[in-house]
Structure formats: C-alpha cells, structure tokens
Design goal:
- Keywords: ATP-binding, Membrane, Nucleotide-binding, Transmembrane, Transmembrane helix.
- InterPro entries: AAA+_ATPase, ABC1_TM_dom, ABC1_TM_sf, ABC_transporter-like_ATP-bd, ABC_transporter-like_CS, P-loop_NTPase, Type_1_exporter.
- This is p-glycoprotein.
- Belongs to the ABC transporter superfamily. ABCB family. Multidrug resistance exporter (TC 3.A.1.201) subfamily.
- The protein has about 1300 residues and is α/β, with parallel strands linked by helices.
- It folds into 3 domains: about 625 residues, ABC transporter transmembrane region fold (Up-down Bundle), CATH 1.20.1560.10; about 240 residues, P-loop containing nucleotide triphosphate hydrolases (Rossmann fold), CATH 3.40.50.300; about 280 residues, Rossmann fold (3-Layer(aba) Sandwich).
- About 55% of the residues lie in helices and about 10% in strands.
- The strands form 6 sheets. A 6-stranded mixed β-sheet has the order 6-9-10-3-11-12, with helices on both faces. The chain has a 6-stranded mixed β-sheet with strand order 19-20-21-15-22-23, sandwiched between helices.
- Helix 3 packs antiparallel against helix 5, helix 4 packs antiparallel against helix 13 and helix 18 packs across helix 20.
Length: about 1300
C-alpha cells in the first residue's frame, strides 16, 4: 500500500536557512565580504558546476569554447599596452625622424601588430560571446521548463503555503540571475583574471621594481569595489523586498481593478502603492550613494598609484636602473589596465554567487517531491470502476490551521450509481470532502475508498480521470471556447464538442456569438457571464466521461430554468455513475438517493429529502423551511405580455459611461460584476446600434525617449544638476590625456638630472584629478540615481492611476487585459531606468569626453584628428545600425513574449489544471512559448556579440589608423612625435570612452520601446480627470431604465439589452430575475456606470447618471456580487476600503448585520486578522459576509445585490437575508437572483429575457400570472 502522508509532513520549509560552505566564506572574505560570509542564505548555494546541471553536451561544448576564447582574449587585450609602450619607446629614443627608414620600419611593425591582434580579438570575442550567450539561453530555457513542470506536480497543501505572485516573480527574477551568472559573466571573470595576470607578468618582465610598487593597485581596487558591494548588499536586498511588495500591490489592484473602482478605492490603492515605492526608493538611494562614493574612491586610488608609478619610474630612469623611458609608460599602463579589469570583477563574481543562490532556490522547487505526484506512474491503474465511495473516520485540517479540524471523524458511503448530496453550513467540510476525494489534499487520518480500494493506492492521474469535478467558481483559460472544452479530452472532434455543449445547455448561446465556438475568451474566461462559464465547464467535464461526478455548486450561476435543463441533461449523461452534489440551493437535491447533512466535520443527519423533511426539528428541515416559498393562491393563466412603459410611474435616467471597474470580484460574470468583462448573449442576431471605440483615444505614434524626458515634471532641477555634474565628469579623460602629454614631454625633453623634479608636479596633478573624480562621480551617480527613482516611481503611479480609472472595455481586449497590463508596467518601468540612472551618466559623460578628445586630437594634429574622428564615426554608424537592429528584435521579442502571462495563468489556475489532468498539456504549451521566445532571443545574439567584440577591440584599430598616419607625417617632416602621440592617445582614449557608451547601449536601447509601451498605458484615455465632474445632488433613490439598448463594445452587433424598461423607487426592494445571459447583471453594470449604453435613458432622481459625478455616484451605491474579492491586509482594511470618516463602531455595526461579527471578534487578532492573498485565509462564506459588511459600512442610498448570498449555506443565507432586508430599509435595493425564495418579498420583481422585461409584478402577482416566473417557482419550490 502507498504510504499515506499527511499535509503536515509536506508543509513548506522555505523558512529554513543555510550556512555558507567554508570555500564560499573564504571567497567572500577574500572579496572583503566578511559580513556576507556570516549571513545565512535562503537556500544553500549550489556548487559552480551545478549551475550547468541542465546543460546539454552541445551547451557544455559551447561553454568550453567560450572559456578558452575568454582566456585567449584576456591574454591578447593587454597587448595594446605592450605595443603602446614599445612604440612610445621608439618615439622617445629616436633622435632623428625625418626620412629615417629605421624609425619607419621599427614603428610600422607595431602598426601591423595593432591590426593583426585587433582582427584576431574581434573574431575570437564574437565567437566567445555567441557561445556563452546561446548556452546560457539554452540552460535557463530548460530551467524554466523544469520549474514549471515541477510546479504542475505539487500538491494543494504546498500551494497553500505560497503566493501566486511570489512563485511567478521567483521564476523570472531567479532565472534572470542565473542567466546573468552563467552567461558572459563567467567569460568576463576569466578574461579579467587573465588580463591582470598577463599585465603583471609582462610588467615584471619589464621591471619588477616598478611593477611591485604599482602591484597594490589591483588588490586595493578589488577591495574597494568589494567593500562597495558589501555596503550595497543590505540596501539592495531591502530594495528588492520592498519592490516585491510594491509589485504585489500593483498586481492585486489591477487584476481586481473593477472591485477597486466600485469601492471608490483608487486613491487608497495608489497611496498604498506610493508608500511601498517610497520605501523602496529610500534603499535605492542608499545603494546609489555607496556606488558613487566607492566608484569615485576607486578612481582616486588608480590615479594615486598612477602618480606613484610615474614618479618612481622617473626615479629609476634618473638613476639609470631603467634605460628605456617607454618601459615606464608600458608598465604604468599595463598595471592600471590590469588593475582596473581586476577591480571590476567583484560584481561579476557576486553575480556568479547570486546565480548559485538563485539556482538553489529554483532547484529547491524543481527537486521538490510532492506528497502525491500526478505525473508519477506509481499506483494502481484501475480499468473498471463501479463508483462506490466510502469515507472511513476521516480527519483533516488545512496546513495553515492545523489546530482546527475541518473534518473530525467523517464517515459515509455512496453506492455505485447513487446520487448523494452533501449539505450543511459554510465551513462544515463539504468542499473539503471533494478536495480529499480528488487528492488535492491527503487526510490526516482515516481512509477514503473507491470500490473498496484506498485512493492513495490508485495512480493519481487515474483517480482524477475517474472523478470529474465542476466547481462553484469555474475557471477557463485564454483561448477559444472550443479549445477550453477540448481540455477535457484532447482528441475530441468538433461534433463531440457540440454534443457536449448541447447537453450542458451552452450550444445556443455559443452559436449567437460572432465567432461561435472559435470565440476567444480572455484569461480566466472573463469575457463570459458566470452562467456561461459554468456551462462550458460542465461541457468540459461531460466530455471526460468520468465514473464519479462531483458537482460543487456547479449550477449556482444558472437560472432555475437553465439549471433544470442542465441537471436533467446531466442525469441522462451520467446514468449509472455515482454523483456527489454540493449545493446551497436545496431544490436541486430533492431527487438525490441520499442526503448527508454535515455539521462540525461530522455526519449530523442522513436520509432522503422526504425522510429528512419529516424530522421537523432536524437541521435539514430547518434549511428547507428557510428556502420555501410562502403559501400562495392557486395560479391562474393569463397571457404573458411585455409590460408597457406606462406601468412605470416615475422616470429617472442616467447614462452609463466607461469606467474602469466593477465591484467586489474577479471576473465580470453574471454573478460577478465586480471584475470585468461580459460577453453579450441571448440577444438579437442583428444590431444597428453604434459601436464604441476601444481603448479610449486613438493610438498616437510612439515618441521614444523624447516623451520620457518631457515627462519628468518636478525632477528637472535634479536632472539639470545631474547633467552638469556629468559634463564635468566628461572632462576627466581629456584632462588625463593632457596630463599624459605633459608626462611624455618631460621624458622627451627634460635633462636626465631634472626628470624627477619635473615629474613631481605632474604626479600631484594626477592625485588632484583623482580627488576631483571622487567628488564628481559621487555627485553624478547619486543625482542620476535620485532622478531615475523619482521619475520612474512617478510614471509607475501615473500608469497605475490611469489603469484604475480606466473604462471597462479597455480590459475586454486581450492585448490590454489586466494580466498584460500588470506585466507591462512591471517590466517596462525598470527598463526605462537605463535612460535616467547612472547608465545615462555613463553615456552623457563619455559623449562629452569623446567630443573634447576629438577636439584635442584635431588641435594637436588635424590629419590624425580627422582620421581618428572618421574611425569613430564609422564605429558609431556601425553601433547605430546594430542598435537599431537589436531594438527591432527586442521589440519583436517583447511583443511576442507570452511566457509571463501563461506562467501567471498556469500558477493561478493550477488546481483546475490538476483536476482535469492536463499538467502535461500546459507544460507542452509553456515549453512552446519558451522555445518561441528563445528563437527570438538567439536572433539578437550575433548582433550583441559583434557590438561587444568591435567595441572591446576598437582601440587596436584606432591606434593602428592614428599611428599609421602619424608615423608617415613624422617621417616626411610634417609633424612632431609629441603632436602625434597626444593626438593618437586622444583618439585611443575616445575609443575607450565609446566602449563605455556601448557597455550601456544594450539596456539604453531597450529603454525606448519600454518607454513607448508604458506611455501608451499612461496616455490611454480614462475617467481619471472627470471622476469628480458633474452634479452632486441629494439622492433619494429613484431609478429608471427607459428603453435602454446596450451591446458590449467587443461585440457591438449583438444587443444584450434591447429596449429595457425598469423602475425602482426610493426605499423599494426590486428584484431582477430571468435566464442566464438575459441582461440582469448588465443592469447592475450600467447602474455602476461600468459601460455606456447605446440608446435610451437611465436616470437617478430625475438626473441623468452621466451628469452626476462618477465618484459621488459610487459613494451612493454599494455593490455586493457573487464572487467576493478581498485584498491582502486585515479584515478592517478590507471593510473600510475606499471609505473616509468611518469609525470602528460603524464597522462593528456593519459586521453585525452581515453576521460576521462573532467570527471576527472571537479570532485571536480580531479586526486585525490578515485575510491573506485573495482572502485565502477565509472560507467562501466568510469572504462573502465581509464583502457584505464592506457594502453596508458605506450606508449607501442604493444597494445592489448580484447573487449576494449565493455562496452562503441555507442557514447563514437566512440570517444574512434577514439582515439585508433590514439593511434595505430606507434605501433602494436592486437584487439580481436565481434563488427565487430570496426575492419573494421584493416590492417589485422584473423577469428579464432577451434584454427585455417580459413580466413584472409582486411575487404573488407573478405566481397568479402563471407565466415564466411561476414556472421557475414550481421548479425551485421544495414543498412541491
């Protein structure tokens, strides 16, 4: 027998921390990271070679080639200093230059060496970069696939310990760290170490004394940069944590944008987002300050040792220990060159260490063995199942509440083919039983048997194919309706799909859609109503043909007529199959073979409907009584007609403008207006009504970075200061060249005995330049960083604000769905920083340096200056072309990258995927998206490689051109060696500056499309600036719909409302009922001004609602929907969401009415109890009652209830319904309901069908009509 493991055994161990290994501590100490050595890590770092665990043979071959070529280029790069020293020596020691053939041949040997080594470096560097880049892309691509594969295997108990946003963010952030650590960083480390060692070896060969004096530059430089990394680590870590919290606020707000809007909570969420961004900015500024200080200190150290090197070299030259002055230049340049490259290795080494930690986190999930693995081949594969079910003394508690037993010794049986109903109050264990039966969880003790076999002994895939589940909140996936149904059985024919939809009563509404079965639905199926989603989910389950069917409130979103049709169809489809039904609407349970009443995790009553009703004092009888209709007269049969407009005595109109959201839910379903998008159904085939243009204003042409720089309001002062300081920073290299020229003059012209004396002031000038660099670099780095953080945070807030006030149809479009919008803001904002932060400083100061250096070159020798400028222009042209191509490729990759959206959808809907056993299908889908992205990323690799190779080798070619021309000019007597030396050195240094520019060019290029993308979000038209415009009249509560016609903008040809007439007077309770898709929830949506109707009048107290301030309107209206959405935070924060001036006593009163006060005040933390992500710490009923309290605390004039009690059990519904009845007193209440017993006391009931009112009256009057309403009554009446 398979070992039964409890959920406690598989609680997340993410809190466990690890000591670093001895070697890691040693490396950290060597890098001056003693504090890091003492820190404990979230995961034990993997070894360096384990980073390449997922490398194929081809990948390992490419990495080996890359490593060898990195070492080779590391040896080759210092040759530029060696050749330069040799050439300088020729200039200094040659006495006669004009027509001197010896000088010509000696000098041109080095010109040829520049050319040959430069070409070799370009070829080897290009190959090295491509190999490293492609190998890292391949490895991280495989890691992503394995990570997602592992997630799809994990059990529900583990997911309860995680956060959706954390899992997806962890995937993206850690994979990027690994890609960074195993890609070009390894090559840079090998290259840098080799360069330093080569420089030191050559230096010692030239003169060991001078080399020894300057040798300390390397270790000290490395120590300084390592200390900088140490100081920055805490700030960076805290910044990362707070940035994660900010991202969570952003995701939560926009993914539930309709709830935010309905609660007028836009500013609340914006302030919450702003607070997290401000906290993040504080740590970012600390990091910028440390980076600027230590970067400046690093240059000070370089110049101090440079000065010391030349001074000591002059001393050795003066006492004739060094005979060739060119050797001093060679050794000084070699040690500075090697020390600089060694000094900048610390970030690369830390990147590798971070990659090892990130890999440990990723591998921890990849390698995690779930308690039950759906992909495992272990367990019995039962071929013939009769369907007998038995619970034997089952005890169970959820991992997060181990002390609370949800099931406490539950025992019951179901015979094969029986229909068994589970009823009871919310939280009694009904849905938990289905979770255990499908092995989403394992029970703590006891056993569950199917046909006498313990389900733990059955292969889990086999088990979930045996058991089909239709859940209360059905989840659909991005794609077509056909694709969603085919997920039930992948080899379905189109006819089989149609047959299943006919059984589920979905075929007719699908055919009315413009694209039929090929209609695209958004993430989560948000373009369909709740009833339509449930019917598609039922069809998906039907095609699986399970032997056991679990219906967990499967028809709760259907109207009574559709429910009867679907249930009758299900009865036929599942004849001979065991069916377990969970329902609060007890009329659906009358024909069950057995009804089991649960209470406190145990069986309280058991029997048939009739048997349990005979026990007048029983729980079930009490529940039935609460849902029965009161005695009524025998119905007559008058004709059913549409009521004329004259039946409405008073008229109030209002127009429904576009808004950004609904109310308190996650998708705009029939029972869930609160979140989003509704597709019209049950409507005429043709429509001549106007269409509404989506996405607000027409798209403007992208303006790139210019638009960014003209939207830095409030930060131009900082930006100007940053640019001015950056320009000063740009003078460093020109000043260095001029000082270097003075050094050359000293050795060329001074007498031997005065060399040391004349070199002293130059050494002091070098030190002064280093001090200036410290001040300027610190100032520039900090001001640029400060500017970037302030501007980007401002843009993030603007983007979020505009989205929270966005009109509803904006999110109906797949390209601008909530998931896409969150991804774009999250990705684009950091990418924009490259155009504002110290990377922009690098570009601006080096451009200044290039211009000044070229000017110096032209002044000293115009032919060499012009030739060098030409070579620079050629390089710039090449870089521009490459950058343009890279930008196009990046834009294409950005546009086609669907991996983030798909990953988010998979993680959010993981349980549905597991229940329909489609883990492998979604993994294949994810792999395909990853491989598509990989193909696009690899297309840019050659361009990036050429860019890197040409820029890193450019100094060879610039020196070749400059010296080739200069030597000729000297030979023919047109120029002096000093002029050529200074002009050539200026051009070479400008090439170095250009390399610094190109180093930031890749990220800078990405900033432009990111800016365009983010500003499209910011500039899209919304209600942001008009939300307070309009009338603010005293509201009494008279509402009237007068000949309202409406079609959703995504399907303008089909009317949802087709001349609707409906009225509700102040203080009245009005109910709207009818078939699914008839337009009931659309009535609520128009009242909340989520959409603009096409024609007709909608008034509130004789005022058109389009003339009333939108914010004021929503202050007067409260909405409670079917699927409540709560936000991370406390219960108190959720109830007070979007309100002002409310006290705790107001909250307590609302909670008392909503029947939630006892639960809250008996909880250990009371109103400060955390509800968890999406309210995950609460049951469905508890979440619903908190949503009701959130509505009541507003004391609205108009209360909108859209299936507000559908998630509650009968007992709780009765209590809450009585409370809502009391709460309705003195205010207009408009209720949408399928459960007709909840609206029998309404002052007026409207039966809506095909977008029109076809019956109107009180409950008694409509029963007497014996029309459509009366027919539904008969289908739901438990007394019949």
């Amino acid at each position: 027998m398979t070992e039964l493991k409890t959920n406690e055994q598989f609680a997340d161990d993410s809190s466990e921390q690890y000591e670093q290994s001895a070697i890691d501590k040693f490396i950290s100490i060597i890098l001056c990271r003693g504090d890091f050595a003492k820190q404990k890590l979230d995961a034990k770092p993997v070894s360096f070679f384990q980073l390449f665990r997922f490398a194929t043979t081809c990948d390992r071959f490419m990495l080996s080639i890359s490593a060898l070529l990195a070492i080779f280029t590391g040896i080759g790069q210092p040759m530029i200093c060696l050749i330069g020293g040799k050439l300088t020596n020729v200039f200094l020691l040659t006495k006669t230059f004009e027509r001197n053939d010896t000088f010509w041949y000696q000098a041109y040997i080095y010109v040829y060496l520049y050319a040959s080594i430069g070409i070799t470096m370009v070829i080897t560097t290009t190959i090295q970069y491509i190999c490293a880049k492609n190998a890292s892309l391949n490895i991280t691509c495989t890691m992503r696939q394995e990570y997602m594969k592992s997630l799809l295997r994990q059990e529900a108990a583990w997911f309860d310990q995680q956060k959706t946003g954390t899992l997806t963010a962890q995937l993206n952030a850690n994979i990027e760290k690994i890609k960074d650590g195993i890609g070009d960083k390894v090559g840079m480390i090998l290259r840098g170490v080799t360069m330093f060692l080569t420089c030191v070896i050559i230096g010692f060969i030239y003169d060991w004394r001078l080399t020894l004096v300057m040798f300390g530059t390397g270790p000290i430089s490395a120590a300084l940069l390592s200390t900088m990394a140490r100081q920055m680590e805490h700030s960076s870590s805290m910044q990362s944590n707070t940035d994660g919290r900010a991202a969570a606020v952003l995701e939560e707000s926009i993914m539930n944008v309709k709830t935010v809007a309905a609660c007028n909570a836009q500013e609340t969420m914006i302030k919450r987002y702003a607070a997290t961004l401000k906290a993040c900015r504080k740590f970012a500024l600390h990091a910028y300050a440390f980076a600027g200080f230590f970067d400046g200190l690093f240059f000070l150290v370089l110049y101090v040792f440079f000065a010391a090197g030349f001074y000591y070299g002059a001393y050795l030259y003066q006492i004739r220990i060094i005979m060739n002055p060119g050797y001093i230049f060679a050794v000084a340049n070699l040690i500075m060159f090697g020390s600089y490259n060694l000094g900048v290795l610390s970030p690369h080494l830390m990147a590798v260490l971070n990659a090892r930690v990130a890999a440990a986190v990723i591998y921890k999930i990849i390698d995690r063995k779930p308690s039950f693995d759906s992909s495992s081949t272990d367990g019995m594969k039962v071929n013939e199942v009769k369907g007998g079910i038995e619970f034997q003394n089952v005890k169970f508690s959820y991992p997060k509440s181990k002390e609370h037993l949800v099931l406490n010794g539950l025992s019951w049986t179901a015979k094969p083919g029986d229909t068994v109903a589970l009823v009871g109050h919310s939280g009694c264990g009904k849905s938990t039983s289905t979770g255990l039966l499908t092995r989403l969880y394992n029970c703590n003790s006891g056993a569950i048997l199917i046909d006498g076999i313990n389900i733990c002994d059955i292969n889990i895939h086999t088990l979930r194919n045996i058991v089909g589940v239709v859940q209360q909140e059905p989840l659909l996936f991005s794609g077509t309706i056909k694709e969603n149904i085919r997920l039930g059985k992948l080899d379905l024919t189109d006819q089989e799909i149609i047959d299943a939809c006919k059984i589920a009563n979905a075929h007719d509404f699908i055919n009315k859609l413009s694209e039929g079965y090929d209609t695209m639905i958004g993430a989560g199926g948000i373009q369909l109503s709740g009833g339509q989603k449930q019917r598609i989910a039922i069809a998906r389950t039907i095609v699986r043909n399970p032997r056991i069917l679990l219906l967990d409130e499967a028809t709760s979103a259907l109207d009574a007529e559709s429910e009867v049709i679907v249930q009758n169809a299900l009865k036929k489809a599942f004849v001979g199959r065991t069916t377990i039904i969970i329902a609060h609407r007890l009329s659906t349970l009358r024909d069950s073979n057995q009804i089991i009443v649960l209470d406190k995790g145990q069986v309280a009553e058991i029997g048939t409907h009739k048997e349990l009703c005979n026990n007048k004092d029983g729980i079930y009888a009490s529940l039935v009584k609460s849902q029965q209709f009161e005695a009524q007269q025998k119905p007559t049969s008058p004709p059913v007609v549409e009521l004329p407009l004259e039946t409405f005595h008073r008229s109030n109109t209002r127009d429904s403008r576009n808004s950004s959201g609904y109310g308190i839910m996650s998708s705009f379903t029939r029972g869930s207006i609160m979140s989003g998008n509704v597709t019209c159904v049950s409507i005429p085939e043709k429509s001549t009504e106007i269409t509404v243009e989506l996405n607000g204003k027409k798209k403007s042409k992208p303006k790139g970075l210019w638009q960014l720089y003209t939207n830095c309001h409030g930060n131009y002062g900082k930006m100007i200061i940053a640019l001015l300081v950056s320009f000063l920073r740009g003078l460093e290299l020109p000043l260095f060249v001029l000082i270097f020229d003075l050094t050359f003059v000293v050795f060329a012209q001074a007498k031997l005995e005065s060399v040391l004396e004349r070199i002293l002031p130059i050494a002091i000038i070098y030190i002064a330049l280093g001090i200036a660099c410290l001040i300027v670099i610190f100032s520039a780095t900090f001001t640029f960083g400060w500017t970037a953080e302030c501007v980007v945070d401002s843009l993030r807030l603007r983007a979020m604000r505009n989205m929270l006030y966005q009109n509803a149809e904006y999110f109906d479009t797949p390209s601008t769905s909530t998931a896409v919008t969150v991804t774009r803001i999250s990705v684009d904002a950091p990418n924009i920083k490259a155009a504002l932060d110290p990377r922009m400083m690098q570009i601006s100061n080096n451009i200044v340096a290039i211009l000044v250096l070229v000017t110096i070159a032209v002044i000293f020798n115009w032919p060499v200056g012009l030739l060098g400028s030409g070579s620079l222009l050629l390089l710039i042209l090449m870089l521009t072309l490459i950058a343009s191509k890279m930008q196009k490729l990046n834009k294409c990759a950005l546009k086609q990258d669907l991996t983030g959206q798909l990953a988010l959808e998979i993680v959010e809907q993981i349980r549905t995927i597991q229940l329909i056993t489609r883990e492998e299908h979604f993994h294949r889908l994810y792999v395909q998206k990853i491989e598509d992205l990989l193909y696009l990323q690899k297309k840019s690799s050659p361009y990036e490689a050429i860019l890197f190779a040409v820029t890193s080798s450019f100094m060879f070619f610039s020196d070749m051109i400059s010296y080739a021309a200069g030597i000729a000019l000297i030979y023919y007597g047109y120029s002096l060696p000093q002029e050529i030396f200074t002009a050539s050195w200026s051009i070479a240094t400008s090439g170095w500056a250009l390399i610094m520019v190109s180093g930031c060019l890749n990220t800078f290029v990405m900033a432009s499309p990111a800016s365009n993308s983010l500003f499209r979000i910011i500039n899209t038209g919304s209600d942001m600036n008009s939300v307070d415009d309009g009338l603010r009249p005293a509201i009494t509560g008279d509402v009237q719909f007068n000949k309202i016609k409406f079609s959703y903008p995504t399907r303008p040809q089909r009317n949802v409302l087709n001349g609707l007439n409906l009225a509700a007077y102040a203080g009245q309770t009005v109910a709207v009922t009818g078939p699914s898709g008839s337009g009931k929830s659309t009535v609520i949506a128009l009242l909340e001004r989520f959409y603009r109707f096409n024609s007709g009048q909608l008034t509130l107290d004789d005022n058109s609602i389009t003339k009333i301030s939108l914010r004021y309107l929503r202050e007067q209206i409260a909405l409670v929907g079917q699927e409540p959405i709560l936000f991370s935070g406390t219960i108190l924060e959720n109830i007070l969401l979007g309100t002002t001036g409310k006290t705790l006593s107001d909250v307590r009163e609302a909670c008392k009415i909503a029947n939630i006060i006892d639960f809250i005040e008996t909880s250990p933390k009371g109103y400060d109890t955390e509800v968890g992500e999406h309210g995950g710490q609460l049951s469905g009923g508890q979440k619903q009652r908190i949503a009701i309290a959130r509505a009541l605390v507003r004391n609205p004039k108009i209360l909108l209830l859209d299936e507000a009690t559908s998630a509650l059990d009968a007992e709780c519904e009765r209590t809450v319904q009585q409370a809502l009845d009391a709460a309705s007193s003195g205010r207009t209440c408009i209720t949408v309901a399928h459960r007709l017993s909840s609206i029998q006391h309404a002052d007026q009931i409207f039966f809506v069908e095909n977008g029109k009112v076809v019956e109107e009256g009180t409950h008694q009057e409509l029963v007497e009509f014996d029309g459509k309403y009366a027919d539904l009554i008969r289908k739901q009446d438990l007394s019949s």
